[in-house]
């Protein structure tokens, strides 16, 4: 594979336009049973559908031409009638530290992002669940752009497969932390999780859902008892600060959402993560470090510190100094809290959520801001 330049297209997904088209129904998103039924409906044996599922989900193939154990006539019929994926690449950037960020669309003006993150011990990806986001977090580039719609199951799984096609090694971890609030799209999220588990073969334990704290949906997810890792974007233990950062806090304040998270941990047996954005003199004060330590005490959890990745949202938010980050961390650790600090990557390609899409908003999007306070 040639090394893409800063804005070169994704070779694995570009195909010839025949399979990554927009007008035809996409096969990505259909279960193996659906594909077996489709094969029979097209006059083939049922097991041909099973072979098709392997090509789509296990091999992440990008063209019907590659499916060389399927009869040519069947492949030709499929190529005529269907697309493999609904996604078309609008932009692809590779950072100097190996992160690939891809902006996709479905032939319309609505763009969304997915990111491939290779680490020493695994390859992970971050995928979107909505086009834009209605949650209106005041530190977030996506929140600035407003909301278009929920992504379909096909579009969610399609992002994973697009990134898997790009990666030379297995993409073993999926984080639902791209554009949008995944729990606002719970039905399609659960279908996507089911396909990624059942057809692609990913472990639930390697999937992370990140939420701003929608309490009823957290409790609904807990009822499924899937060992999925849940991450809460907390960002402050104080309601007045969190209200300023995240309108959702007016509806479900800190105590309520943390109680839901603790119940999720008990129901699933999984350690939860509290994402904590450090914004200079807004969320990084010693008082908040102390209050955070008290809040999560006794709960099997990790606090993930994220120094603010500067984006101008008109709030004047600033990144804290290294000394302030270290001081905050020390308070937590001295109170026995498990702390990690996010290793930031992809700075040179606008890798923070919504930044790349934000650069395309003028070209592609016409979004409407919504309020979750009502
Ligand atoms: S931080 Fe997440 S939930 Fe908040 S506006 Fe951005 S994408 Fe939406």
Broad CATH class of the largest domain: Alpha Beta
* Dominant shape: elongated
- Cα gyration radius (Å): 21 Å
Strand content: 15-25%
CATH superfamily of the largest domain: Aldolase class I
Largest sheet: 10 strands, mixed
Uncertain segments of ≥5 residues (pLDDT<50)? 1-22, 361-374
Bound molecules: iron/sulfur cluster
CATH second-level architecture of the largest domain? Alpha-Beta Barrel
- Tally of discrete structural domains: 2
Number of strands: 14
Oligomeric grouping of the chains: single chain
Average of pLDDT: 88
- The helix count comes to 14
Give, in spatial order, the strands making up the sheet with the most strands. 3-4-5-6-9-10-11-12-13-14
What is the N-to-C succession of helices and strands? HEHHHEEEEEEHEHEHEHEHHHEHEHEH
CATH topology of the largest domain: TIM Barrel
Structural class category: alpha/beta
Structure description:
There is one protein chain. The protein is α/β, with parallel strands linked by helices and 374 residues long. It has 2 domains: 23-83, Orthogonal Bundle (DNA polymerase, domain 1); 88-364, TIM Barrel (Alpha-Beta Barrel). It is built from 14 helices and 14 strands. The strands form 3 sheets. Strands 3-4-5-6-9-10-11-12-13-14 form a 10-stranded mixed beta sheet, with helices on both faces. Strands 1-2 form a two-stranded parallel ribbon. A two-stranded antiparallel ribbon has the order 7-8. Helix 2 (32-41) crosses helix 3 (46-58) and helix 6 packs across helix 7. It starts with 10 loop residues before the first helix and ends in a 10-residue tail after the last helix. Bound molecules: iron/sulfur cluster (SF4). Residues 133, 135-137, 140, 142-143, 179-181, 212, 353 line the site of iron/sulfur cluster (SF4).
């Amino acid at each position: 594979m040639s090394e893409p330049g800063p804005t070169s297209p994704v070779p694995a997904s570009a195909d010839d336009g025949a399979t990554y088209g927009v007008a035809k129904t996409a096969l990505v998103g259909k279960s193996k049973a659906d594909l077996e039924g489709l094969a029979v409906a097209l006059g083939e044996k049922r097991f041909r559908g099973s072979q098709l599922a392997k090509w789509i989900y296990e091999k992440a193939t990008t063209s019907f031409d590659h499916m060389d154990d399927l009869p040519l006539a069947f492949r030709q019929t499929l190529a005529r009638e269907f697309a493999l994926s609904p996604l078309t690449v609008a932009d692809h950037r590779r950072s100097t530290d190996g992160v690939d960020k891809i902006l996709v669309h479905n032939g319309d003006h609505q763009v969304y992002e997915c990111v491939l993150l290779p680490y020493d011990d695994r390859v992970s990806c971050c995928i979107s669940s909505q086009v834009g986001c209605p949650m209106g977090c005041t530190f977030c580039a996506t929140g600035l752009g407003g909301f278009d719609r929920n992504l379909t199951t096909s579009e969610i799984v399609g992002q994973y497969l697009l990134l898997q096609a790009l990666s030379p090694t297995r993409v073993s971890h999926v984080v639902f932390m791209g554009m949008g609030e995944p729990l606002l799209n719970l039905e399609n999220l659960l279908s996507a999780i089911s396909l990624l588990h059942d057809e692609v073969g990913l472990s639930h334990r390697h999937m992370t859902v990140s939420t701003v704290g929608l309490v009823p949906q957290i409790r609904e997810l807990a009822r499924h008892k899937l060992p999925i890792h849940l991450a809460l974007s907390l960002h402050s233990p104080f309601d007045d600060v969190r209200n300023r950062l995240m309108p959702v806090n007016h509806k479900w304040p800190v105590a309520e959402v943390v109680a839901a998270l603790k119940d999720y941990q008990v129901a699933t047996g999984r350690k939860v993560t509290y994402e904590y954005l450090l914004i200079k003199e807004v969320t990084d004060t010693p008082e908040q470090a102390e209050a955070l330590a008290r809040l999560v005490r006794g709960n099997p959890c990790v606090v993930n510190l994220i120094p603010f990745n500067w984006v101008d949202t008109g709030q004047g938010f600033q990144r804290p100094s290294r000394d302030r980050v270290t001081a905050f961390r020390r308070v937590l650790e001295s109170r026995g809290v498990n702390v990690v600090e996010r290793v930031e990557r992809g700075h040179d390609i606008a890798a923070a959520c919504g930044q790349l899409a934000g650069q395309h908003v003028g070209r592609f999007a016409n979004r409407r801001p919504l309020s979750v306070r009502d």
